[in-house]
Write a structure and sequence with these properties.
about 475 residues; alpha+beta; Four Helix Bundle (Hemerythrin (Met), subunit A); Heat Shock Protein 90; 3 domains; five-stranded mixed β-sheet; about 75% helix; about 10% strand; flat
Length: about 475
Amino acid sequence: MKVMPEKGLLHHISPSFLRHRPRKYWLAILVSVLCALGVLVLAERSYNTLMRVAGERQQLQLVSATIDALGDDLTLAESSQRGYLLTGDTRYLEPFKSAAGRIAARTNLLRGMAPLPLRESPSLRGMYAQMELKLGEMNRTIELRTRDGPDAAQRLVNTDAGKQYMEAFRSHRQLVSQAADALIVRKQVEFNRLLSATRLSFMACVLAALLAFVLYLGQTYRIDKLTRSAQRATEEERARLERQVRERTARLTDLASYLQTAVEDERARLARELHDELGALLTAAKLDVARLRMRLPADAGKLADDLAHLSGVLNEGIALKRTIIENLRPSALTNLGLVPALENLTREWSHASRIEVHTALEPVELDESRALAVYRLVQEALTNIQKYARPSRVAVRLDTHDGIVEVSVVDDGVGFDPSNLPLATHGLTGMQHRLDACGGRLVIDSAPGRGTRITGTLAQQPAPR
């Protein structure tokens, strides 16, 4: 943006204008300028102080919330410990470990952000101590339950040490929370006082500005002239920024295309490794099990059943491996082309969801990346339909005209309002990004109660650079 130098402003003010102003005029200007400067300095200091107090208040609120969260986590850990002691089910240990981890993290956070008066209070130190004692007691009971059985753990529980630690922790936590709340109230009072002072400062600043406006009212024409010059400079700057936005948008589109390509390449690599490495291992294991079954005597009994079960598990693993590989990189798309791949996708989806699917797929000529973008769009659309649409019928259409490929997925489900979608609508966002990376366009036509049509268009060939 072009900035007019100070001499440019003085150039518009003639020497005669400066010479013929009365002395009272200049005195009034000087007084108003000094008053405005004084008020501005006061307002700036008040603003900085206000922001500092607001930050301290917010920090205290976070401290109070962290203290409450520590109590909740310790209670959760105690409940998980009791569940493990009663049942011996190790699943209860996962919430305990998670709560213990959060307690450690929040304790470190609290030690760092608590203000000095609260940090040095005996109540906070006592809370830390009782919390560590309680955690140590719970760990010992869990260790005894795991190593020596429930009776050993129960003897430690019957000492009521854990109950005493917990009650002491809650007592200290209450005192700390009260102290934090008191500090929050003090900061709120200070904040309100500073806010009132800031408001008065700004009122004074407005009055000074009005005085200056009255004194300079006679210079409206020259100010307008300078304003028009500044507007022209602003328009030039806006045009420059718009060009930058267009250029950076193009770069982001290229980046999105690169990222999509990188993701698909990584998926292809993972699919190959799963097929070559994991597939070979599973197949070899299946063959080993088959050989073992052949060598078993006729009266092997349970061992034969176990090997039969193991063979079934390996078959399930091989089937799961194939499913994962297909999700990572559809083999039909690579081996047969886009239309057979879409026919296979819709057929399998219809069989799994028990929803009727009608297809009208015209053969199209697309490179690998664009064909994959069309396939993923249809795949994601069908996934969303199965999750949310509750349709009775789905139609998938693919055709081309004038070098433009159009793919559409239509359902007669519940529909939705496209203008009221949440920000984290990853499925639709993924479709949009894929088409953007190919220079395409996504259109969503839907309304509550009348189904949904998702249409993607893209050129058969990439646009020349």
